[in-house]
Amino acid sequence: MLTDTIHIAIVEDDNEIRQTLQLILDGSAGFACKYAFADAESAIASIPDLPVDVVLMDIDLPGKSGIEATRELRKRIGEIDFIMLTVQSDDDSIFESLCAGASGYLLKDTNPADLLVHIKEVHEGGSPMSSQIARRIINSFRIIDNPLSDRETEVLKLLSQGLNYKDVAETMFLSPHTVKTHIKNIYSKLHVNNRAEAIYKAIKQKLI
Length: 208
What we know:
Blueprint: E1 6-11, H1 15-26, E2 31-37, H2 40-46, E3 54-57, H3 66-76, E4 81-86, H4 91-100, E5 104-107, H5 112-123, H6 131-141, H7 150-160, H8 165-172, H9 176-190, H10 195-204
Parallel strand pairs: 1-2, 1-3, 3-4, 4-5
Helix pairs in contact: 2-3, 3-4, 7-9, 7-10, 8-9, 9-10
GO molecular function, one term: DNA binding
Protein name: DNA-binding response regulator
Keywords: DNA-binding, Phosphoprotein
């Protein structure tokens, strides 16, 4: 188990939050926080040359986002761990952050004691997540049963390739009326209202 002091950098544009975090971390046994930045650009310029183990990164920053900063820093310094500390709990922010190289994702309402535990966890190789974030991730990886029939799936695949209703009918040797019936059923089963929504949802859920 790692027992050395964990050196932390903070990237947070809110002065009060940044200063409070720095005081809490620097005043806690086993943690040191000597570096704090108000924007992504200064963090990107400085952190590669600093003795930092863990970076607490906000997402909404002036200029470049915390996600962009994480991506750039990850390319340059692979040994540092990044924890997103943010108010953003939407799927896009979560997955873009993880794809950019973040090892953890915490919401700003995480209490100080838990934050220290999570920082230690990521430093020891873990991937800490706020409970509601972990739940979102789990839900996204659940296997979704395809509610569409084979014929409906084929219709939607052709639509996603840019074919119109007439082209789909000719390709599948169906009447235009039958194709429209399939499309109506697709919309109903996927709970969408138009072609674009149907294609987007089907791709996201890996139905086509």
